[in-house]
Structure formats: C-alpha cells, structure tokens
Amino acid sequence: VKIIFSRTIPVCLRILKAIPSNDTVRNKIMIFVQRMIILLGVDIVPYMPDFFPLIISNCKQDDILDVGQMFYQLSLKFKSKAIPAIEGSILHFLRKCHELLSIETCDDKETALSRKSEVLAIKKVMFATLNQIVSSGCSAVLVSSDNASSLENVLGIAAEGAINIDDPTIKRTCLQFFKELVSRWLVESEIDS
C-alpha cells in the first residue's frame, strides 16, 4: 500500500503545479498530503519542500488552517526529522499569514465583527504552528542559514501575541513558545559547552 501511494505523490505534485490557484485542487491535495503524512511516515518529508511553496503561495483564509496543520502534523510526528520539510517554508507561511491579516475590512458592523473573528483565527494558527515547531524540537529552522536573518521578526510576532492580543489562548501559546525556545536553546548551549 505504501508503494502504491508513494507513486501518487509526484502525480499530485504535477497537478498542483499545473493549476495551483484552483481552490478545489489545492484543498484536496492538502487533505491528501495530510493523509500521506500518516500513511507514508517520514518518507513524505522529501516531497514537502515542493508542495509547501505552491500551497502557501495560493492559499486563502479558508486554507490557512490546513497549511498550519501540515506544519503541525509534520513536526509532531517526525520531530527533528521534519526540519528539511519545514525549514524552507515556515517564513513563507508567516508572510502569507500577515498578508491575510492585512486584508482591508468593510465599514459594515457585521462584516467588521466577522473580520475580527477571522483575524483572530489566523493569529491562533500562526502562533500554534510556531509553538508546535519549537515544542517538537524543530527550533533549528528558526536559526538556519536561510531563516536566521528573520529571527528577530519571528520573535517580535510572538512577543506581540504575548503582550498585545487580548485572547488568553494566544497569550498562553506565545508564552509557551518562548519558554520552549529558551529551554531548548539552553540545553543546546550546555551540550555545546
């Protein structure tokens, strides 16, 4: 079964490359990839750097939770073995979240209230994803040669969530992110000493 399903991955990737902006195709492929993470295990990791850019570039507000779940699932299931899958796309994901957060709102009160709820949902996904990556032992993605220059921005995003957002879940998630990050870096620095 693993062999048969592993042969479907390049086919799905070609379809996604052909029509990446098609919402239905992108949605079904994200669901497929999440299932392949379970079925194929760590063998899916080499394919993820090809899937993530296409999915993230074209995702919309409705997709952001599924994208976050893929990062979450990879880091939870494979721990540090997921780093190659996550490293090249995590900043792209955070940029996409910020892009979705900056969408203008209408003056209509009902629409504004709905938009406020959407913004909070995007922030929860963003912070939960960062927290899971660090908690799973994948914090090296934040200081990789490609991502280290953006570390200050990532820490600033988490600090904003911990300080300025009035949602207890987000505050707790951001504080856990910092706690995990510091404790992991302290352990790593002790090992290096």
**3D shape:** globular
Oligomer: single chain
What gyration radius follows from the Cα positions, in whole Å? Answer: 17 Å
Helix content: over 70%
Number of helices: 9
Query: What is the tally of beta strands?
Result: 0
Low-confidence stretches: none
Which band does the percent of strand residues land in? under 5%
Span of the ends, CA to CA: 46 Å
Overall mean pLDDT stands at 92
- List the secondary-structure elements in sequence, H or E: HHHHHHHHH
The major β-sheet equals:
none
Supply the helix-strand structural class: mainly alpha
Features:
0% strand, 193 residues
Question: How does this structure look, described?
Answer:
- This protein is mainly α and 193 residues long.
- 74% of the residues lie in helices and 0% in strands.
- The protein contains nine helices and no strands.
